[in-house]
């Protein structure tokens, strides 16, 4: 911004006319006096003495709107002063051509129209951006719903509605094969059709599944459970010493149909948050194996050991008949 505008106009632009220089200086510094006339706001008073004060009383306008209309009124007043000065054929002649630029056809009225069209386009652009944001949020929400939806099972597939000649029955089957939306129309169509998708099986289907599961035998359910929860090497090693107790005709054999993979493994295997190290766990497992081996050896040889001990004792002792015969012989010799 120039501090000495009058000097700049006189020395640089060669504006020698004092009246012209005063009008341009007041227009640039904002000191142009608005003459009495109609209010710049359309539909307001046709004649106002103090236009500047009158504009401050418009409560329906913002501060920016008031400043814009005040600047427009001051510019119109300055252009009118330049036109009157040019019409008087001043000496020295005028240098500026601001008043002549507005008289050219198509220049003055085109600027407000272009600004208005730009504002309208900007407003439409913002509205479209808001609509696009809403549609994108809706598409993301429906995508999450499709991801959470469980895959269709074999039992529910044959009971789905078969397509017929009518187009209404084909609509609920389309969302079962989701495709990425190619445009906003595709996203809106997917959003409108996805709420109609069946998210849960029908109650009759659940009843049929329960009946089928009840008909399965215990052994078959156990085999299914073993397949679902296989044992690792460590669990198999821990269960191997206990397996003999669940065989044969003993009371323990009554538990042979019980699945050991889940119940016993959860008791033996330490949880993840346990502070017991793997070395201590292996020591405990080793001691348990020793105790089991000792118990197994005692169970196998206890009867044989008892028979051998009794046999040894019987060999060391003298039979009653022999003892009675010896006593009889000794008494005869004494006589």
Automatic annotation (TrEMBL):
Residues 154-166, 182-196 have a biased composition (Low complexity). Residues 83-118, 142-218 are annotated as: Disordered. It comes from the Eukaryota. This is Uncharacterized protein.
């Amino acid at each position: 911004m120039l501090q000495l505008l009058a000097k700049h106009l006189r020395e640089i632009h060669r504006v020698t006319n004092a009246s012209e220089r005063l009008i341009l200086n007041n227009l640039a510094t904002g000191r142009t006096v608005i003459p009495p006339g109609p209010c710049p706001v359309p539909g307001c008073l046709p004649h106002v003495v103090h236009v500047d004060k009158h504009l401050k009383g418009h409560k329906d306008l913002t501060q920016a709107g008031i400043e814009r209309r005040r600047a427009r009124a001051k510019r119109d007043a300055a252009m009118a002063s330049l036109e009157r000065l040019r019409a008087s054929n001043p000496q020295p002649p005028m240098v500026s051509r601001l008043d002549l630029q507005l008289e050219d056809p198509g220049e003055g009225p085109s600027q407000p129209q272009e600004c208005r069209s730009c504002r309208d386009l900007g407003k439409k652009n913002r509205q479209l951006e808001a609509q696009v944001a809403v549609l994108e949020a809706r598409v993301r929400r429906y995508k999450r719903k499709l991801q959470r939806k469980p895959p269709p099972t074999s039992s529910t597939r044959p009971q789905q509605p078969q397509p017929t000649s009518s187009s209404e029955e084909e609509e609920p089957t389309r969302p079962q094969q989701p495709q990425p939306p190619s445009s906003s129309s595709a996203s809106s169509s997917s959003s409108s059709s996805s709420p109609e998708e069946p998210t849960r099986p029908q109650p009759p289907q659940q009843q049929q599944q329960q009946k089928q599961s009840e008909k399965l035998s215990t052994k078959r359910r156990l085999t299914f459970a073993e397949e679902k929860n296989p044992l690792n090497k460590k669990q198999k090693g821990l269960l191997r010493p206990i397996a003999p107790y669940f065989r044969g005709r003993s009371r323990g054999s009554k538990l042979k149909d019980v699945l050991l993979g889940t119940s016993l493994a959860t008791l033996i295997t330490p949880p993840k948050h346990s502070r017991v190290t793997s070395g201590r766990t292996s020591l405990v497992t080793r001691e348990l194996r020793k105790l089991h081996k000792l118990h197994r050896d005692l169970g196998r040889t206890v009867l044989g050991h008892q028979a051998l001990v009794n046999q040894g004792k019987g060999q060391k002792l003298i039979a009653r008949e022999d003892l009675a015969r010896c006593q009889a012989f000794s008494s005869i010799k004494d006589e």
